[in-house]
Amino acid sequence: MAESKLRNLSVELFVKSDLLNRETAKETYNECGPIRKTRISSVNTSGQAKDKPTNI
Fold first, then answer.
1. Backbone dihedral angles phi then psi of residue 19, each to the nearest 5 degrees
2. DSSP H/E element including 42
3. Structural domain containing residue 36
4. Is residue 28 part of a domain?
5. CA atoms within 13 A on the CB side of 40
6. Is residue 52 assigned to a domain?
7. Dist. CA 33–CA 16, nearest whole Å
8. In a domain, 20, yes or no
């Protein structure tokens, strides 16, 4: 949840700094959603695998 708030704040800062217009920021944010979810899922999975003992 903290990552989501930080991401929203970052997008908002780009918009307020006139680096992105609001429409472009919204489109980019929405288009990156599936990539973001996959990345988070991969990190969570690797963290869970790291914590499990390996059977050798």
1. -85, -25
2. helix 33-51
3. 2-44
4. yes
5. 9
6. no
7. 22
8. yes
CA–CA distance from 30 to each of 12, 25, 37 (Å)? Answer: 14, 9, 11
Our count of domains for the chain comes to 1
| Residue-wise pLDDT tens digits, 4-55 | 666 677 778 888 999 989 898 888 888 888 887 888 888 888 777 766 666 6
Q: Does the pLDDT at position 1 exceed 60?
A: no
The answer as to whether 21 is a domain residue is yes
Pair 20, 28: CB distance under 8 Å: yes
Per-residue three-class SS string for 15-36: HHCCCCCHHHHHHHHHHCHHHH
